[in-house]
Write a structure and sequence with these properties.
The chain folds into four domains: 17-118, Cytochrome Bc1 Complex, Chain D, domain 2, CATH 1.10.760; 151-272, Cytochrome Bc1 Complex, Chain D, domain 2, CATH 1.10.760; 286-404, Orthogonal Bundle (Cytochrome Bc1 Complex, Chain D, domain 2); 415-449. The longest helix is centred in the C-terminal third of the chain and has 34 residues, at 416-449. By secondary structure, it is mainly α. The protein is 48% helix and 5% strand. The chain has helices at 2-30, 34-37, 72-81, 96-99, 104-116, 138-145, 160-172, 176-179, 219-228, 238-246, 253-263, 286-291, 296-301, 307-314, 316-319, 335-338, 343-351, 373-388, 396-404, 411-414, 416-449; strands at 46-47, 54-55, 83-84, 88-89, 197-199, 202-204, 353-357, 360-364. A hairpin with a 6-residue loop joins strand 1 (46-47) and strand 2 (54-55). It has 21 helices and eight strands.
């Protein structure tokens, strides 16, 4: 009996291991780990932040450059506490304030998965953000922003659907990292949870159930956007396109429905609304068409800044002369054309869109290398004014700031170096003053006793 039992036990153990690895793969996909760590999880790519580039770690099981030497406890601390062997405190580009909601079983499954993938030897550049943004400073930041076991901003819900949606939105998806505004010290603001924020020059929109968020979206609208990256009124670009392609589009329909169920329950927060689309497509004058060149590159070479000419030459073949899409989205109804901020339209004109889901590719070329900032501004203004009815007047400087992602860091963060120097100097002067006072008092005491 014993000899028969041993193989059965081994089979059961193998089955448990396989189940844990499969569960870990699902969790890693829902958490969109590839977005930062790469398709092979070897890391190395810079993650832009308002205080400088943060380099994603190698999380393959390579013993020298990855996590091959980590214990499961080490792995758990990195995920849920923001502390890793050999590095100490992690910077919060690693969303541990969200991943802190992972259970012990979740961590075990993720650990099993990442120990099972191919090891890749890749030494990642060390992140150096300069003083005062040093790793030990994260201890103070964590005291203010990390509530262990409780994902930042998550609300209490009931029912299986909303509970699973909460886990997907607040823990694995760490949606708050992009969609929630930051306070003066770059912590996420609970009072504006998921109400939209600027991230690396893009605007991550309000996803609360207010009408200025997703309140007017049907469940079908939301599901289509999450699974394909587009619906009748919105197209995903930038980091959201990456999240859709590598994470959200791979989740089962039930998970997508649960995400919607949870988002319907978060507190609605009113922000600037996108105005309704024009009642009808605008008529394009014959004069504009006659001025347009079929070879828009000639206009670029001539440094033309006529938005109508540039649009008709570079954009109309897909989006239509009147903005009613032929092979691309219908600009008359697309939200980003009428959004209060021009950021996303500028980013798409500059960098384009590349998104593949369900075997279909959404592809728009970017014009960053062909158009100047002034020309991108001209196309943006023409598109927003003509097809969105928006009084748009951004200029080359605005485009440059949007594409560089400048101006997003709070004042305290932008001036942290000099504020720290002044603080240290003041503290040193106070210490010197106290020492002088104490020395003088000691001398007076000695003199009085002499």
């Amino acid at each position: 009996m014993l000899t028969a039992f041993i193989p059965l036990a081994a089979v059961a153990q193998d089955s448990d291991d396989d189940a844990a690895i499969e569960r870990g793969k699902y969790l890693a996909t829902a958490a969109d780990c590839t977005a930062c760590h790469g398709i092979d999880f070897a890391g190395g790519d810079p993650i832009a932040s308002p205080i400088g580039n943060i380099y994603a770690s190698n999380i393959t099981p390579d013993a020298n450059t990855g996590i091959g030497g980590w214990s499961e406890s080490d792995f758990a601390d990195a995920l849920r506490k923001g502390r890793a062997p050999g590095k100490g405190w992690l910077f919060p580009a690693m969303p541990y304030t969200s991943y802190t909601g992972l259970s012990d079983d979740d961590v075990a499954a993720l650990y099993a998965y990442f120990q099972s993938i191919p090891a890749v030897e890749n030494s990642v550049q060390e992140t150096d953000l300069g003083f005062p943004f040093i790793r030990p400073a994260m201890m103070a930041w964590n005291l203010l922003n990390l509530d262990e076991g409780h994902p930042v901003g998550a609300i209490d819900v009931t029912g299986d659907a909303a509970t699973n949606g909460r886990f997907l939105v607040e823990t694995l998806g760490h949606c708050t990292a992009c969609h929630t505004p930051r306070d003066a010290l770059m912590g996420e603001r609970d009072d504006l949870h998921l109400s939209g924020a600027m991230v690396d020059g893009w605007h991550a929109p309000n996803i609360t159930p207010d009408d200025s968020g997703i309140g007017r979206w049907s469940d079908a609208d939301l599901a289509a956007y999450l699974q394909t990256g587009h619906n009748a009124i919105a197209v995903a670009g930038g980091k959201m396109a990456v999240a859709v392609e590598h994470s959200l589009s791979k989740l089962p329909d039930e998970d997508i429905a649960d995400i919607g169920a949870y988002l319907r329950e978060v507190p609605a927060i009113a922000t600037a609304e996108v105005p309704p689309p024009l009642a009808e497509a605008p008529a394009v004058s014959l004069a504009v068409l006659q001025k347009s060149s079929s070879d828009w590159q000639t206009q670029v070479d001539d440094a033309a800044t006529d938005g109508a000419q540039l649009y008709q030459g570079a954009c109309a073949s897909c989006h239509g002369m009147d903005g009613v899409g032929l092979f691309g989205p219908d600009l008359v109804v697309t939200n980003d054309i009428r959004a209060p901020e021009a950021n996303n339209l500028v980013q798409v004109i500059a960098h384009g869109i590349s998104l593949t889901t369900q075997g279909k590719t959404t592809l728009m070329p970017g014009f960053r290398d062909e158009m100047s900032d002034a020309q991108i501004a001209a196309v943006t203004n023409y598109t927003r004014t003509t097809f969105g009815g928006i009084d748009s007047d951004i200029d080359a400087a605005n485009v440059n700031a949007i594409l560089d992602g400048t101006g997003e860091a709070p004042w305290l963060i932008r001036n942290a170096f000099w504020l720290s120097i002044v603080g240290i100097a003041v503290a040193a002067l106070l210490l010197i003053a106290v020492l002088i006072w104490a020395t003088g008092r000691l001398r007076n005491r000695n003199a009085s006793h002499g």
